[in-house]
TrEMBL record:
Keyword Manganese: no
Family: Belongs to the HAD-like hydrolase superfamily. CbbY/CbbZ/Gph/YieH family.
Protein's UniProt name: Phosphorylated carbohydrates phosphatase
EC assignment: 3.1.3.-
Highest taxon of the lineage: Bacteria
Keywords of this entry: Carbohydrate metabolism, Hydrolase, Magnesium, Metal-binding
Cofactor: Mg(2+)
InterPro entries registered for this protein in UniProt: Beta-PGM-like, HAD-like_sf, HAD-SF_hydro_IA, HAD_2, HAD_sf, PGP-like_dom2
PANTHER family reported for this sequence: 6-PHOSPHOGLUCONATE PHOSPHATASE (PTHR46193), HEXITOL PHOSPHATASE B (PTHR46193:SF18)
GO-annotated molecular function: hydrolase activity; metal ion binding
Amino acid sequence: MIKAVIFDMDGVLINTEPLHYQCWVEIFKERYGIDLDYDVYKPCIGSTRLHFMNLIKENYGITFESLAVMNQIMKEKKDEIIARDGFPEMPGVGQMLCCLKDAGYRLAVASSSPKPVITETLETLDLMKYFDVVTSGDEVKNPKPAPDTFLFAAKQLGVLVDECIVIEDSTNGGKAAKAAKMPCIWMHNLDSGDQEIPDAVIEITAWTQESIEKIMKFLHFDQEKVLK
């Protein structure tokens, strides 16, 4: 039976994918005079900055001095845009986390974002209090779509793989959940771009009362017949 729920962050707990793409578009335009093609950016959704750095080198021949320098450039641009336009919150996410916590589930974040970014985001949105474990793709050998991030989160939670369910918005995340042998709930966030999780046990599009009830019903009553 499911004892733990493992969340991706970007596009699931916070609507950051449009923000991230906007950041990189502005960075590459301002620094290199390049119009960042969405088709180049798209494969990195749900994966790590290192993967994105490799994609940029492959497609544009641009090499950042280091991952730390790349992260700092991104942080400065992100802070600039948030100061200008506000933080891209997702309505209802706090209610959903509260329901799961009150029901006794252990909760984790397993995001491909750098650990300081995850921590800062969750603290800014007052969501850190709901999570037992916070993990990053930087802490494992292989990023999503490899299963490492979710397997590491389960280990940190102290639960078995078959006691976990994942909530993801990206194709890479869905593949990672499948590789980890964890069922996946698909947060079909239209702002996350052209993503697909065909093996998802549930599909939702927002953190509404209806979607929260749908998830709780699955966890309490439907999981045996779906997962057997």
